[in-house]
Amino acid sequence: MPKHTPGPWKCSPVSSVVGSLVSYGDISKGESVASVMPQRNMAECAANARLIASAPDLLRILNSGYYLIDSAIAHVAHGGPTKAEAAKWIAEAAEIIRSAQGDC
After folding, report:
1. Are 23 and 7 in contact (CB under 8 A)?
2. Is there a cis peptide before residue 8, judged by omega within 30 degrees of 0?
C-alpha cells in the first residue's frame, strides 16, 4: 500500500468559491493534498479542512495509543507502560483533538 504524504499538514481558507486547501508545504508550488469545497457554508468547509489536515497526527496518535494499550495488556504482570508514558500520550492526544477542532 502506498504511503500518504508526510505531515504536518495545514489548512488555509481560500475563498467562498474555492473553499479551503490542505497543504504540506508551499501552496503556490502546488504542495497541497486536498481542496475542500464549500457545500453548505464556509464554517463547515473550514471544519472539514481542519479534520483532513489533522489526519497525519490523528493516525500517529492512534498508532501510538494502540501500542501503549497493547503493551499494557501484554505486560500487566511485568510493568507495562509507566503512568508518565500514559499521561504524555493522553496530553498529546488531547492537543491533536483540539487542533482538529480548532481554527484553519
Report:
1. no
2. yes
Contacts of 5 (CB under 8 A, 6+ apart): 24, 33
Handedness of CA 72, 75, 57, 51 (dihedral sign): negative
C-alpha to C-alpha distance for 21 and 31, rounded to whole angstroms: 10
Name 40's Cβ contacts closer than 8 Å, sequence gap at least 6: none
The count of C-alpha atoms lying within 13 angstroms of the C-alpha of 74, restricted to the half-sphere facing its C-beta, is 7
For residue range 50-61, list pLDDT tens digits in order. 999 999 999 999
Prediction pTM value: 0.73
**Coil, strand or helix at 47:** helix
Please, are residues 38 and 44 in contact by the beta-carbon 8 Å criterion?
Answer: yes
What stretch of H or E contains 15?
Answer: strand 10-15
